[in-house]
Predict the structure.
Amino acid sequence: MTELTAGGDPEAAYLIRGVRVLGAEPTDLLLTGGVVAETGSGLAARGARVVDGDGLVALPGLVDLHTHLREPGREDAETVESGSRAAALGGYTAVCAMANTSPVADTAGVVEQVWRLGREAGLVDVQPIGAVTVGLAGEHLAELGAMAESAARVRIFSDDGHCVADPRLMRRALEYVKAFDGVIAQHAEEPRLTEGAQMHEGEVATRLGLTGWPAVAEEAIIARDVLLAEHVGSRLHVCHLSTAGSVEVLRHAKARGVRVTAEVTPHHLLLTDERAASYDPVFKVNPPLRTAADVTALRAALVEGIIDVVATDHAPHALEDKECEWAYARPGMLGLETALPVLLDVLGERWDLIAERMSRTPARIAGLAEHGRTPAPGVPANLTLVDPAARRTVDPGEQASRSRNTPYAGLTLPGRIVATFLRGEPTVLDGKAVK
């Protein structure tokens, strides 16, 4: 692959030779003016910078509906810039930044700050998610309309990390966002059932002597909220769905025509609660890792389309918040740089399904019209190139995130992100960030 420098001429052309779009037969892609200008065999363009796509697969740039960038407030764990770099290295061209910052992203001013920081970084499109309630406290609705009308044009609202537990408040939120076709993304956890919980409630928790987080705490909130969404006729999105029972609630709701979508994380598709047996806090996450039976059900639901999206829930934490006793550790795991390899490990080379769950559908849910589009003439040139034959061992020290709390350290996973293009400009080349 040719060596390119950071920045560059926005009107420069890039010619990707012999790449397989969604695994199809090799073709050339000419990127210029921010779009895919031409596709076909034997393309040529005077002055174009050539990228060798032999053996590589082109996907629409990945879109993450659930990223924690920590800025403002916890820049020791992550910044918009460092998180954007991690995202680009993971093949992402757009990420939705969760609202649990400090101050909370519950006003137009804070969401615009995050949005502008993303534009300044220029590595991925950072789309802020606004809080549903003031300070994530679950008592009063935040400035939903002002955030929607801000420069950031917020369309997804979530108190992630906290459940909107009050049904009246949840109904009001669903009614409010319906006016501009917004989405309420719920952290489904009945707090009265999870007080003091440390991991999944089950055999492993009993053996370890840790307080359990029952599956029904998630399932009960999802059941309540799909009924509310059906009553209001508004859009509901379920964050990090984790249990087999939740899949069945979702299946029933979709059969009834409820406007509900759901996401699953890579770690809930791969890891089980047995990992907690080591008491290593890197495996502490909310919702917790579940059983092998839950993992099997989640994988099947993802393939079937009952679960719509794979979202990372990328949750960086400073060393002192993770390298401590299990009970005191903050829940959360890194995910941006390993999501696609984990999905390749789980699903194999099912490129169209991967593009649907990691790009097209999340872009549609978030209203990101420039993203989630298969490379074709006239389409915005947001794409990622993957080497499916490569295998890499995860080394936390090599990751771009400021934090190191990856649950995959030492694990060898398939696939390598070779290049990422944002509106035709490379953000990653030969597996390295270009700025």
